[in-house]
Structures are given as C-alpha cells and as structure tokens.
Specification:
This protein has 377 residues and is of the alpha/beta class. It has two domains: 16-261, Type I PLP-dependent aspartate aminotransferase-like (Major domain) (Aspartate Aminotransferase, domain 2); 262-370, Aspartate Aminotransferase, domain 1 (Alpha-Beta Complex), CATH 3.90.1150. It is built from twelve helices and 13 strands. β5, α6 and β6 form a beta-alpha-beta unit. α2 (37-57) packs parallel to α8 (245-261) and α3 packs parallel to α4. The longest helix has 21 residues, at 37-57. The radius of gyration is 21 Å and the shape is globular.
C-alpha cells in the first residue's frame, strides 16, 4: 500500500514508537499511584514527555503540557475554559469540526474571518477587521487540514495580544513540521494530536496551557485525595483518571524522532513531494489542483470526470490510501467553494518517497482515462 493520508494519521512510525508502547504495556504501571518502581518509571516517562514537548513548543514550564486523548479533547478543554453561552468567538474560515461543534455546544456566537485560499495577507486583514468587534476568544488552525494552507499564526497572535483577546491554536496539522511557540504567541491554549506530525500512537494528544483552565473530566489524580474538588494546579487539574502510559511512551519516542530529524527538514521533504505530485496532476485533463503559496504537505484535487468519493475508492482499489469527502471540515470547503462535492486529499509524512507520488499521479490518470464521462453529482 502507498499511504498518502498522514493528515488523518501517520500510519508509518519510527520503529522506536511501537517498541516503546509495547514495552510500557508490560513494564509500566500508573504514575502517582504507587511508590514501587513500575509506578515511578511511569512517572518518569510522563515527565520526560512533558519536558521534550515543552522544549519543542515554547512552553515555559513542563507542567503546562497536558496529556489528552487527541486534539479534539484538548480543544474541548480550551473552549470550555474560555467560552460561555452567548460569547462571541472569531474563527478562521478553515476550522475543523473539532472546533465548530464544541463552540456550538457551548452556545457561542460564531463569527468567521473569511479570506481566500493561500492569501495570508487577506487572512490577517480579515482578522484585523473582525477584531474591531470585541470577542471572547479567537480560534485559529495553523494549517487547513483540507488544503494545506498555512494560516499566518504569528500575525494573528499579534493582533490578539494587541486586543487582549485569548487565542486558541489548533496545531493538528502543524505540530511536528512548523514552529509552535506557546509563549511567543501569547496563546491561551495550543492543542495537537500525538498521532499525526508527532508520529505517536493514536489516542494521544497534548494541550499546551498558557493560562487558567477548567477541567473537562473530574476524578482521581493521585494527589490531594481527601479534597473533593479538582486540584488547582497543572497538570493534575486537567488529567483525571488513569493515564494512557503506553501511548505516552510511544509519543515520547515520536517527539524525539521529530526533534532529531527537525521539523524544518520534515516540512521541506513533504513540500518537495507536494510540489512533485501537484505538477504531475496539473497535466491531467479535467483535474483541478488546489495549490498556492504558503502550503504544508497537504494537497487537494477535484475532477470534472469523477466525484471525489468514487475517485478515492478507485485509488484505494489500486493500493493508494487517500482521503475523500469533506474531511470533517465543512467550513473550509465552504470557504473554498468545494462544499457540494468535497475533494480528494493527498497528505505526506517523513516516510513517503518520490516514487510513491509518481505512482499516485499515474493511478489518477489511469482511473480518469477509463471513466472520462462520469461527472459529479
């Protein structure tokens, strides 16, 4: 199988990741739940994970790094902490349902700073104009999970600091390839999954906390057990229940892999593959390639000859794994004008090779050549 769906999860991991997760399953107990070596070693793994993440992501104190189940979990904590019913919240036009659904459930009044694809200046202008109206929070993704558009987070963060508006950053498609700087941005929260650009196991994630946070879950923490309120200090305040120690051990190795290779090196590799594939797909009649400046390693296409879901299924039948449809991001598709049909998305990791992009382009050409008269709808 040629795997080109790393925007969903990086299926290909460094060998150290599954090895560490498997070792933890039979050697590590629960941190903070005992004075014996298996518990103490689990606590060491958690501490080292927080340390590595804090160093990579501009977090002043490792205790501000919270282990979550995924980015969605972290975004729910962040939104619950900052947003009350009726609060106005400003989003980019490229947000995922992991942002929009919790906001709707919280009763927020949602405003969208709409801007065209791949135009960072227009995005900044849209946020600046919208922030003339007082907002309870701004939520912005680093990278569109559909189109790979890099939102200008540094500049949007500066606007939020100037206006005194709390900022939540969804780093789901940026962590591991782009600079993440909690302190430099002055962000209230940055949420990210462990299983994408950090090459960790599924069911892991990190929430970087720049300010006060409200628990989403309540329960045991291994600390202040007589007290019936959640502890008022991090990370315990946000980490009720038994930790995913196996996942944490794997994620620690994933982050170490990223730090050794460096995010910039990984990004350059992914962008080389993205440009290579885009150039090949642009030569296929009837194919629209969504490409522009300020991109990460994600590429979407549509075809006049076949709807995205069918094209995705045909590619899977030829051993090429991609994602087709709306990608849990209808707002992004609405912004780009692809809401009716969705797109076929190709996305890359450090483990993909140039010949895999060549094979994918050849497969698209072959599939569309055999079904030239099929149209969306």
């Amino acid at each position: 199988m040629i795997y080109l769906d790393s925007a969903a999860t990086t299926l290909q991991k460094p060998a150290s990741v599954p090895r560490a997760a498997a070792w933890a399953m039979t050697h590590l107990a629960s941190p903070g739940r005992g004075g014996y070596p298996a518990s103490a070693e689990a606590a060491d793994v958690m501490f080292h994970l927080r340390e590595e993440a804090a160093s990579l992501f501009g977090v002043p104190n490792p205790e501000q790094v919270i282990l979550t189940g995924n980015a969605t979990h972290g975004l729910n904590i962040a939104i619950r902490s900052l947003v009350r019913p009726g609060d106005p919240v400003l989003l980019s036009g490229y947000e995922h349902n992991a942002v929009t659904r919790p906001l709707r459930a919280a009763g927020a009044r949602i405003f969208v700073a709409r801007s065209p694809l791949f135009d960072q200046d227009a995005a900044v202008e849209a946020f600046a104009e919208a922030l003339h109206t007082p907002m309870a929070a701004v939520v912005c993704t680093m990278v569109s999970n559909v189109f790979g558009f890099l939102l200008p987070i540094d500049r949007i963060a500066a606007l939020c600091r100037e206006k005194g508006v709390p900022l939540i950053v969804d780093a789901s498609q940026g962590a591991g390839t782009l600079p993440v700087d909690l302190a430099g941005w002055g962000a209230s929260f940055v949420a990210m999954p462990g299983h994408k650009g950090l090459y960790g196991p599924q069911g892991t994630g990190l929430l970087l906390c720049g300010g006060d946070a409200m628990p989403l879950l309540y329960g045991g923490t291994g600390s202040l057990s007589r007290q019936q309120e959640m502890p008022d200090f991090l990370p315990d305040r946000l980490e009720a229940g038994t930790h995913n120690v196996c996942g944490a051990a794997g994620l620690l190795e994933g982050i170490r892999f990223v730090r050794r290779k460096t995010p910039g090196t990984i990004l350059r590799h992914e962008m080389q593959l993205t440009h290579r594939l885009a150039g090949q797909l642009q030569g296929i009649p009837g194919v629209s390639v969504y490409q522009g400046p300020h991109m990460a390693g994600v590429l979407s296409i549509t075809s006049e000859g076949m709807d995205p879901e069918t094209l995705g299924e045909r590619l899977a039948g030829q051993g090429i794994a991609v994602r087709a449809g709306l990608h849990c991001a209808p707002l992004a598709h609405q912004t780009a004008g692809t809401l009716r049909t969705g797109t076929v998305r190709f996305s890359f990791s450090a483990f993909n090779r140039p010949e895999e992009t060549d094979a994918a382009a050849s497969a698209v050409r072959r599939i569309l050549h055999t079904c030239p008269n099929r149209h969306p709808g």
